[in-house]
C-alpha cells in the first residue's frame, strides 16, 4: 500500500487515486509531511492549477445575473413632464438587445431583463380600424410561452392611431375597453402603466368623452400622456378577475417566427384575436363627441341605471353622450398615482376668442362635476395627481380646480421646460402676453380654492400642493409678509411654505373649521419651483391678502 501511494504521488495523478481507502489516507499523511525545504511540488499544489472557464460554462441563473448589470432605467421615466412625443421610449443604449442576438441561450438569459420594461406600438393604419385585442394576440402568446407574466413590471402603450377600438364592428360603446383591460391584467400585471396616445384614443381607453369640435385649434399637440402607478404590494389587494384562460383562445398558424418578430418590434397590424369579447354589448354611444352648441361649462348627463332608459329615449332628446359610472382602467387595479400630460395649447392662441376654445381632453370626465352629479372616474385609491400642460386655457384648467378629486397631493406644471417660446414657427401670430395672463389666471383660480376660509369640498383633505413652475416674485414677496403675520407657517425657502401637522386647526364638529381664517384645512406644504420675475406680473390678480396671484 505504501509503494502504491508513493507511485501515485511521483506520477502526478489525481489525488483520488491515492485516497481510495482510509489506510491510504493515513499513510500519505505520515509519509508526505509539509517541508518548507522540499523543492519538489506537492500533490496539492498540482491539483490547484485553475482550469480554463468560459462564459458558456456558467449556469443560467448566473448568466442572467451578469446581464442584469447591463440594465438601465427606462428612458420614459425622465421625460414625462416634458412636451409629449411618441419617441419618449427611444434609447441610444441597446446593449441588452445586442446580447440577446448572440445565441439562443443568451436570448433566454436576457429575456427577464429585456422585458422588464415592455412596450407595444400600435401604428397608424390607413386601411382599417385597428382592434387592439387582435393586435396584441401574438405578444400575449409570446409572454406565456416565455413565462414573462411576472417579469413585466412596467408597460408602455404607444398608440399612434386615434381610431383604436376593441370591437370587431368598429362601433363605440360605453367603456368598450372594459373587457380588454381585465383580460390584459389577467395575463400580465405591471405596477406601472403609461399610455401615449391622441386625445380621442385616450378617451376610448379610459371611457372618457372627448370634445373634438375645436381640435383643429390644438394642432401642435399630437399626443397626451396618461401614467398610472401603484405599490408593488398592491398585487395582493387587487380584485379577482374572471376571464377565459389564454389557452382557450389559441390562434391557428402562430409560429415561432411570428412570436420572435413580436419580441423584436411590438408593432403588429394583422393578427388573430386572443382575448375574449364581451358577452353582451352595453349601450352604444360615442367615446368622443361633437356638440356645436356646447360651452366650456356645459353640464354632462348622468348615465341612467340599467333598465331605467333605452337608447331610443337618449336619441329623442338633444343631450351629450352618456358616460359610464366608472372606468375599468382605473378600477382594475388600486392605482395610487396618476399623471396626465396634455401637451401644448399654444397654437390655439392664434384663433379668435381663444379663451372659449375647448381642448380635446379626458380631464373633465376624470374629475367629474358636482353640479351635474357626475362621479369622478379617478378611483378613490389615487391620492397623488400630477397635471402637466403648456399654457392651457383657464376655462379648461377650471375642470381640475372646480372639481378636484379627493387627493392628498397635487402637482401642477403649466410652463414649458424647453425653448418653445423662442421658436418663431410655433410662436407665429401668438401674443406672449396672452400666454402669461392665462398662466396667472390658472394659478389664481387654484390658489383661491387652496386658501379658502375655510377650504371647501375636497380641498379640506389636500395636504400638499406643488408646482413645477416658478412663483411670480412680486406676488411671492407679498405672500411672505402675510405669512409672517399669520405665524403658523414656516418659510422653508424661496417658493416654499410648510407647517407641522400639529399646528393644524381642528375641524369644528358643528361644521366648518374653527376660526374661519386662511391657512386652515389639511394643507401642510405649498411649494413652487423657485421664484422669478414673470413677463406679466401676477400681483394685480390679488383681491384679498394671500388669496390670489401665484
UniProtKB/TrEMBL annotation:
Compositional bias segments (type: Polar residues): 296-314
Region of interest (Disordered), ranges: 290-315
Protein name (Swiss-Prot/TrEMBL): F-box domain-containing protein
Amino acid at each position: 500500500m505504501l509503494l502504491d501511494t508513493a507511485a501515485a504521488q511521483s506520477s502526478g495523478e489525481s489525488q483520488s487515486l491515492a485516497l481510495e481507502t482510509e489506510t491510504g489516507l493515513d499513510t500519505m499523511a505520515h509519509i508526505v509531511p509539509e517541508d518548507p525545504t522540499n523543492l519538489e511540488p506537492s500533490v496539492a499544489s498540482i491539483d490547484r492549477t485553475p482550469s480554463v472557464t468560459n462564459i458558456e460554462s456558467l449556469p443560467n441563473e448566473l448568466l442572467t445575473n451578469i446581464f442584469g448589470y447591463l440594465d438601465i432605467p427606462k428612458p420614459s421615466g425622465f421625460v414625462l413632464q416634458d412636451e409629449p412625443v411618441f419617441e419618449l421610449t427611444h434609447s441610444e443604449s441597446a446593449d441588452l438587445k445586442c446580447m440577446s442576438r448572440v445565441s439562443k441561450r443568451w436570448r433566454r438569459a436576457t429575456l427577464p431583463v429585456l422585458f422588464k420594461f415592455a412596450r407595444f406600438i400600435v401604428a397608424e393604419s390607413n386601411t382599417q380600424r385597428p382592434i387592439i385585442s387582435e393586435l396584441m394576440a401574438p405578444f400575449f402568446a409570446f409572454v406565456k410561452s416565455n413565462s414573462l407574466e411576472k417579469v413585466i413590471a412596467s408597460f408602455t402603450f404607444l398608440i399612434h392611431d386615434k381610431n383604436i377600438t376593441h370591437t370587431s364592428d368598429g362601433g363605440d360603446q360605453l367603456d368598450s375597453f372594459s373587457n380588454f383591460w381585465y383580460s390584459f391584467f389577467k395575463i400580465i400585471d405591471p405596477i406601472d402603466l403609461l399610455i401615449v396616445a391622441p386625445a380621442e384614443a385616450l378617451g376610448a381607453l379610459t371611457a372618457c368623452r372627448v370634445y373634438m369640435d375645436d381640435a383643429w385649434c390644438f394642432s401642435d399637440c399630437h399626443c397626451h400622456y396618461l401614467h398610472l402607478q401603484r405599490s408593488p404590494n398592491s398585487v395582493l389587494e387587487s380584485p379577482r378577475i374572471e376571464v377565459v384562460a389564454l389557452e382557450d383562445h389559441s390562434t391557428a398558424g402562430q409560429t415561432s417566427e411570428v412570436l420572435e418578430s413580436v419580441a423584436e418590434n411590438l408593432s403588429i397590424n394583422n393578427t388573430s384575436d386572443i382575448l375574449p369579447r364581451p358577452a353582451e354589448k352595453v349601450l352604444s354611444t360615442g367615446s368622443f363627441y361633437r356638440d356645436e352648441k356646447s360651452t366650456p361649462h356645459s353640464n354632462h348627463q348622468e348615465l341612467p341605471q340599467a333598465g331605467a332608459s333605452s337608447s331610443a329615449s337618449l336619441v329623442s332628446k338633444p343631450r351629450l353622450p352618456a358616460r359610464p359610472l366608472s372606468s375599468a382602467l382605473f378600477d382594475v387595479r388600486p392605482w395610487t398615482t396618476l399623471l396626465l400630460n396634455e401637451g401644448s395649447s399654444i397654437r390655439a392662441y392664434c384663433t379668435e376668442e381663444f379663451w372659449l376654445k375647448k381642448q380635446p381632453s379626458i380631464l373633465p370626465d376624470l374629475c367629474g362635476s358636482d353640479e351635474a352629479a357626475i362621479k369622478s372616474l379617478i378611483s378613490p385609491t389615487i391620492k397623488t395627481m400630477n397635471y402637466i400642460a403648456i399654457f392651457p386655457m383657464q376655462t379648461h384648467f377650471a375642470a381640475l380646480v372646480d372639481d378636484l378629486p379627493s387627493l392628498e397631493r397635487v402637482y401642477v406644471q403649466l410652463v414649458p421646460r424647453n425653448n418653445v417660446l423662442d421658436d418663431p414657427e410655433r410662436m407665429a401670430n401668438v401674443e406672449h402676453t396672452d400666454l402669461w395672463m392665462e398662466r396667472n389666471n390658472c394659478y389664481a383660480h387654484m390658489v383661491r380654492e387652496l386658501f379658502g376660509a375655510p377650504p371647501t369640498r375636497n380641498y379640506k383633505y389636500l395636504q400638499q400642493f406643488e408646482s413645477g413652475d416658478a412663483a411670480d416674485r412680486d406676488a411671492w414677496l407679498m405672500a411672505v409678509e402675510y405669512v409672517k403675520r399669520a405665524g403658523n407657517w414656516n418659510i422653508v425657502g424661496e417658493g416654499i411654505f410648510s407647517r407641522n401637522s400639529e399646528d393644524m386647526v381642528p375641524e369644528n364638529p358643528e361644521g366648518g373649521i374653527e376660526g374661519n381664517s386662511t391657512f386652515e384645512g389639511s394643507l401642510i406644504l405649498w411649494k413652487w419651483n423657485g421664484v422669478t420675475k414673470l413677463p406679466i406680473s401676477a400681483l394685480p390678480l390679488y383681491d384679498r391678502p394671500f388669496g390670489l396671484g401665484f
